Amino acid sequence: MTAPAARWRPAGTVYGPLLNARREHALWAPKMAEPPYKAAPQAPVLYVKTANTFAPDGAAVAVPDAAWIGPTLGLVIGDSASNQPPAPASQAPAAIENIVSACVLLNDLSLPHASYYRPAIRFRNRDGFLVCGAQPVPAGDVDLGALKIEARVNGALAQTLDLATLVRDAATLLADVNAFMTLRPGDVLMLGTDCLDDGSRPLVRPGDQVEIRAAGFAPLCHTVVGESSDAGPPQGARAPSGGSAGAAATSVGARSS
């Protein structure tokens, strides 16, 4: 009997861009001219998801009350490249072919917060707040210009991220990031998350089941559980669809900070 493949987790650093969806960028555009920035950013604005946030497919992620979900795609770096000026648009796709080895579904969670430009680490980098797809898909098998990622909460469609609506598509984002920093093998560059039409984001609460789907990828499934202050991780959390029958989901981040 063949043993099941180990659930995937990032081997390097995970970076995410702020405001890389046209809808959210447009909603924030008027505020970009206000102090202290007074202009829209010219280069990608990145944040880091630290290793404590990595959770496998099927995990039970602990939240204090509610959390935003952020369905997205990660570009898994298979080769490094030296810092260089941004590639012209005609050359940007070569960055994908030469540097990215695979793509992976991700759910980038955060606690609701008002300051989107400078969110405190405690909102975005809580234990288990980056749930990773079970296995990446080779980059050559993914149509990055046409992919749509669906997020469902308790079976109901909560959000669709259309990669055709990114401010910087995958190749352009990679080239622009590579202009000022070197991504190393094993690093992951997320393509960004999006808001809803009214500027809000989908919320999940303890007891909810989340499923992230995209064509060509195995579904990413996980549950949301409540934090416990002293008792440690909740026991016997039910595995979401796709988990092993009769097996408890892995609990992540069940202690409050």
How do you describe this structure in short?
The chain is 12% helix and 27% strand. With 257 residues, it is α+β, with helices and mostly antiparallel strands.
**Form type:** globular
Regarding quaternary structure, how should these chains be classified?
Answer: single chain
Average predicted local confidence, pLDDT: 84
Q: What Rg do the Cα atoms give?
A: 18 Å
Hey, roughly how much beta strand do the residues contain?
25-35%
Number of strands: 16
Question: Are there runs of 5+ residues with pLDDT below 50, and where?
Answer: 81-91, 229-251
Order of helices and strands: EHEEEEEHEHEEEEHEEEEE
List keywords for this structure.
six-stranded mixed sheet, 257 residues, eight-stranded mixed sheet, globular, 27% strand, alpha+beta
Can you walk me through this structure?
There is one protein chain. The chain has 257 residues and is of the alpha+beta class. It is built from four helices and 16 strands. It has helices spanning 22-32, 92-99, 121-124, 170-178, and strands at 14-17, 46-49, 54-55, 60-63, 67-68, 71-77, 100-108, 130-132, 137-138, 148-153, 156-162, 188-190, 203-204, 209-214, 220-226, 251-252. Strands 1, 2, 3, 6, 7, 8, 9 and 12 form an eight-stranded mixed beta sheet that branches. It has a six-stranded mixed beta sheet with strand order 11-10-14-15-4-16, with no helix packed on it. A hairpin with a 5-residue loop joins strand 14 (209-214) and strand 15. The protein is globular and about 40 Å long. The termini are far apart. The model is unreliable at 81-91 and 229-251 (pLDDT under 50).
